[in-house]
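hey
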């Protein structure tokens, strides 16, 4: 375990997007393994659709293959070490440890895999940053309990989290109990293993699931701090400041409301209580949460140590957004910001938005921040064994310059910067590997064909120099 307080320069991936081998070593499928590679991936799923997904023998399910990190982790981590990074965020697959989610004891083969991964990181002095749940839940828990809608799943998760924290108590310091908790409101099957039936109010189910995740997060912190008081726990949100389309106060208020809703989960994780506006909102939406009095004591007494977040783009909204041009962003659709230049990615690029977002979160939370995802997902071309991804360098440079300015000029306290998808992986929104993020290219196409060979892109050497100079290189070139 690292003991110094150096800035963490690193990369990030998740199990469901990289490991593949979805039935190896006693693992059973998770929600993510049933997502085919088509546009329905992000849509809410109802019971007939879920039944069809379970039966589907036709489509290609990209996460079942991933990038074979299950077998290539040694080679991949050696490359990360060559890159010079000092930290690496990955997630543990719940289904690899508890294949149905309800076993008493963890699957020894699953534990052995993560021991090997962490052992390899240790060998190269790379700090592990562990996400306990990254968009993944054993599908058995979806079928039996409708995922996080059920309190029972909260108990299963806490048992899983406790097992992991006990097992790696001397090896891991930074824990992220949930990836982007706010995504349960946007992509409920991925974020919460939720399947809707016709009669229910979707928001009721989503906030109920969210409540269970928040309480599970607090319980994990309570247990974790007893296991090792040095553990550091982070909230993790899909961030990105929402801009008002115009300075019309109506638009400004709409943007402010959008941000307030987006920050709901991290507010609870940092402040230890539901925000004051929730009561009115729940009433208006007909939401009645099933809770226990001890839930609120847990939330109050077990807040997070840091706030981690992903940043890909800012958002934009107006009082009447219906007639305005729209664009996709991380997990939802937003109003197209006419001030942001055209780029080669689907999501709009806004490097200054990162500085604005860092300041927004720093002002609100007064906690150390941690950028645990940022990067450019776009198509790359392998030509004569080389990938010249100048556009990725330019994206990263713009974002890093703003990050460094936020630290130096605005006094933002930041633990580190982890580039997302440091190795090409299966995209969540598209299910395609051709939406590539990495500085390491994986020779594999969208149907899983290819040698799987790893190739260093031009951005590899650029990021290596950024890390070696503690960021200075990003200010120069
Ligand atoms: C974040 C997720 O929302 O965005 C990652 O935590 C995801 O898992 C990343 O990969 C980028 O999104 P996408 O849809 O391009 O994979």
């Amino acid at each position: 375990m690292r003991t110094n307080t150096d800035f963490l320069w690193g990369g990030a991936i998740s199990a469901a997007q990289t490991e593949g081998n979805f039935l190896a070593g006693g693992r059973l499928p998770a929600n993510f393994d049933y997502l085919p590679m088509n546009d329905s991936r992000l849509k809410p799923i109802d019971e007939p659709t879920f039944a069809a997904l379970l039966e589907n023998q036709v489509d290609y399910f990209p996460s079942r293959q991933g990038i074979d990190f299950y077998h290539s982790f040694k080679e991949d981590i050696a490359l990360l070490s060559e890159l010079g990074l000092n930290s690496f965020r990955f997630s543990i697959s719940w289904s690899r440890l508890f294949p149905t989610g309800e076993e008493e004891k963890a699957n020894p083969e699953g534990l052995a895999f993560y021991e090997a991964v962490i052992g390899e990181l240790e060998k190269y002095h790379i700090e592990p940053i562990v996400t306990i749940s990254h968009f993944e839940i054993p599908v058995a828990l979806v079928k039996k309990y409708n995922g996080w809608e059920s309190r029972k799943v909260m108990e299963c998760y806490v048992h899983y989290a406790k097992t992991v924290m006990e097992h790696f108590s001397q090896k891991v310091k930074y824990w992220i109990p949930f990836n982007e908790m706010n995504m349960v409101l946007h992509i409920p099957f991925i974020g919460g293993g939720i399947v809707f039936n016709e009669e229910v109010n979707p928001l009721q189910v989503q906030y109920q699931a969210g409540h269970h995740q928040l309480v599970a997060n607090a319980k994990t912190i309570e247990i974790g701090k007893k296991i090792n008081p040095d553990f550091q726990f982070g909230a993790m949100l899909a961030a990105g400041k929402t801009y008002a389309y115009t300075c019309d106060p109506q638009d400004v208020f709409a943007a402010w409301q959008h941000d307030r809703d987006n920050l709901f989960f991290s507010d609870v994780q940092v402040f230890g209580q539901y925000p004051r506006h929730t009561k009115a909102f729940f009433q208006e939406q007909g939401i009645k949460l099933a809770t226990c009095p001890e839930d609120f004591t847990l939330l109050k007494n077990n807040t997070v140590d840091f706030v981690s977040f992903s940043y890909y783009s800012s958002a934009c909204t107006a009082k009447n957004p219906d007639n305005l041009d729209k664009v996709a962003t991380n997990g939802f659709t937003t109003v197209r910001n006419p001030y942001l230049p055209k780029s080669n990615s689907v999501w709009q690029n806004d490097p200054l938005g990162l500085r604005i977002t860092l300041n927004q979160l720093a002002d609100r939370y007064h906690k150390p921040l941690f950028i645990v995802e940022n990067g450019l997902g776009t198509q790359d071309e392998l030509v004569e064994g080389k990938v010249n991804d100048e556009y990725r360098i330019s994206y990263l440079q713009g974002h890093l310059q703003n990050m460094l300015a936020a630290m130096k000029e605005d006094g933002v306290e930041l633990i580190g910067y982890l580039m997302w998808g440091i190795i090409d992986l299966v995209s969540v929104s598209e299910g395609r590997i051709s939406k590539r993020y990495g500085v390491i290219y994986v020779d594999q196409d969208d149907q899983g064909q290819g040698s799987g060979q790893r190739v260093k892109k031009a951005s590899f050497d650029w990021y290596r120099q950024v890390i070696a100079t503690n960021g200075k290189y990003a200010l120069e070139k």
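The mean pLDDT is 96. The chain has one domain: 8-476.
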